[in-house]
Amino acid sequence: MRHKKQKITDIAALVILLVLSATVLLPVVFITTHSFMSSRELNAAYGQILTAAASADESEDEPVTMDPHLIPREPSLKGYRDVFLATPDYLGKFWLSIFLTAAITGGQTVLSCLGGYGFAKFRFPGKNLLFVLMVLLMMLPLQVTLVPNYIVLDKLGWIGSYPALILPGICSAFGVFLLTQTFQSIPDSVLEAARLDGANQLKTLLFVVIPQAKAGIASLVILNFIDTWNMVEQPLVFLKERAKYPLSIFLSQINNADLSHAFVCGILAMLPVLLLFLHFKDALMTGIENSALK
Fold first, then answer.
1. Which residue, of 18, 134, 172, 199, has the fewest CB within 10 Å?
2. To which H or E segment does residue 38 belong?
3. CB-based burial of residue 100 (10 Å sphere; 0-12 exposed, 13-18 middle, 19+ buried)?
4. How far is CA 88 from CA 32, 91, 95, in A?
5. Could you report the per-residue pLDDT of 59-69, keeping only the tens digit for each?
6. Are 76 and 36 in contact (CB under 8 A)?
């Protein structure tokens, strides 16, 4: 009887996991298959919905029809040709997003390693209070910090330029908090042994602490990359020109031109995050576990 209940429980858990997996994967499959559809097929399936949404005087009583399907009836690679070869704007936005994400992720990783090492392995007056204030700052919603950040950046004359996005992203409290927990798990005896061998603080950090905290640093890189890659509010507030928007903002404007371009650019936006996660997923899980973020 007990074995039968366990079997039923396992089957129920499997069904729930399958449903959740299908729910998560369906948008990915939807975008992928639709990227191989022709513009005519996409307009026939969803054009009326877009027209109704864009029209302010559309009658609510008039029925709107659509023809959703996953398998392309008119397979076409025109969207990929236009995005990758014919129109440079899309790839330009992609590489702009890569540059901004790499700059913010790299800068935040460096500062987080230095700050996390200081909080984890040094004693100084007001350390605990400063750490608590940093955690409270980390818990504030992004929308709360946009206004003070805007005022500071405006005084610096950076509003409308890319440093306005990079500087606040680098100075994030989350990375310091995460690596503080990671570095605290490294025994002090290891650091003492390095100092007895003649290593100074910088060498100890570079050649002893960081190699032992690779999983935590990798998890920070992945989480920060995903967050920066998908940023929306910061470019809208800090950048004045639409031409400077990264791919995350530019995607919302593509629907006005060609639906096939929108789906292909959706694939383009998913690839970096997907490849990074698949390559470092084990390090991400290990880093979060070691940081006690459960």
1. 18
2. none
3. buried
4. 21, 6, 11
5. 455 566 677 77
6. yes
